[in-house]
Amino acid sequence: MNPVSCPAPASAPFNFVRLAASLLALANFGLGLPALAGEPAAAVRATDAEVHQITWLMPDSKVAGLGTGRSLGFSDRLVGYLSEHLPHIQHRSLVANSKRSWQLLARGEPVCIPAALRTPEREALAYFIDAQWVPPPQLIVRRDRVERVPRNSAGEVDLARLLSDSKLRGALFEGRSYGPHLDNLLKQAQGSSAIALYAHAGASDKLLNMVLADRADYTLDYNFMLRLRAPDHEAIQRSPPPASGPGGDADLLTLPVQGAEEGMIGAMACPRNAWGMGALRQVDRVLGTPAGARFLREAVEGLLSPDIRRHYGPKIDAFYRERARPSKPG
To answer: How far apart are CA 77 and CA 30, in angstroms?
Structure first.
C-alpha cells in the first residue's frame, strides 16, 4: 500500500507540538504568514535592521530646510546634530517637496522625513517618533486684503467662509498636512476655484513670494516663517520684524484661524518596514535623552514669539520633559 495515501487512524492524537514547529519554520522563512497586529511582516521579523545610511528628505524651503549661513532651518540643524552623534551612519540630504517625500516613504525607500505631522493616512506608511512642539499654522495675508478676510469677534479667521470666497485667492501646498482641523476644512473645500495647490521645489518660499507679488492673497504657514526669511533672523528672534518698504515681508500679516488653537507635535518619519524601525531606534537613542530634548527645544523655541511662548509655556514644558526619555517608534 502506498504509505502517502494511507489515512491516519481515527484515534491518532493531533500533534500540536509538530504543528507549532512547522508554523515557526514558515514564519522564519517568510512563507506567507500574516504579520501580527497589522504590522508588515518585515517589521515583525527584524525591528532592529542594520542602518548604515539615512537619506533625509529636506523641506523644499531655503529657510525651513537646506538654508545657508545663519539661516539654517530646523531640519538641517537636526540632521547636523544627528550626524555628529551617530557618526557610524552616513547622513545624506535630498531636497524634496511634501508630495514627493511621501511617495518615497510609501515605496519603502530608505529615506526619512525630519519634520512631519502624523495623520491616519501617513501612519499606514511610516513609523514616527515625536521631535518638536510647534504652534498651529496661521493665515498669512497681504496687509491690504486683511479687511476682506472674514473673522470672528476674537479676530480669528473663519477659514470655511474664506475658502468659499472666490474673490480672494489662496495658495497652498499639495500633499502637506496643516493639522486635523485645517485639513478637514481644506478637504471640504477641495476643488474650490479660490485655492491653487503647488508642489514644486521651493514651494514654501515661493508661496510667500506669490502673496507679496499679488499673485495670491493668502496662504497658510507658521508665523515664524516670516521671521526666518529676514536677513538676520537671529536678531529678529529678539524683537518684532522691522518695517520694510513696499513689497517687503512687513506687507504680510499673520492671523490666527478659528478652531486651530492647539499646538501640534512635529515628528520624524521613516518607512513602515524593518529598515525604518531600525533607523528611528538609532535616532531615538540620541534624542531620547536630556541633551537631545534640550537641543530639540532650542532649535525651535527661539523662533517662537514671546506671546506664543507665554501662552503655550506649560504644554511646551510638558512635551520636552517627556521627549527627554526614550520613546518607541510607532
So the answer is: 40
Cβ atoms of 142 and 251 closer than 8 Å: yes
Whether residue 81 contacts residue 246, with contact meaning beta carbons closer than 8 Å, is answered with no
Handedness of CA 96, 97, 102, 107 (dihedral sign): negative
pLDDT digits (tens, 9 = 90+) for 32-81: 223 323 333 333 333 457 899 999 998 766 555 444 444 457 888 899 99
Amino acid identity at 166: S
Q: Report which of 280, 256, 254 is spatially closest to residue 48, judged by C-alpha positions.
A: 280
DSSP, residue by residue, 171-196: EEESS----HHHHHHHHHTTT-TTEE
H or E element in which residue 128 lies: strand 126-134
pLDDT in tens, 16-30: 334 333 333 333 323
Cell of 32: 506567507
* Residue whose C-alpha is closest to residue 139's, from 61, 204, 222: 222
- How far is the C-alpha of 168 from the C-alpha of 112, rounded, in Å? 36
Residue among 233, 215, 232 at smallest CA distance from 224 = 233
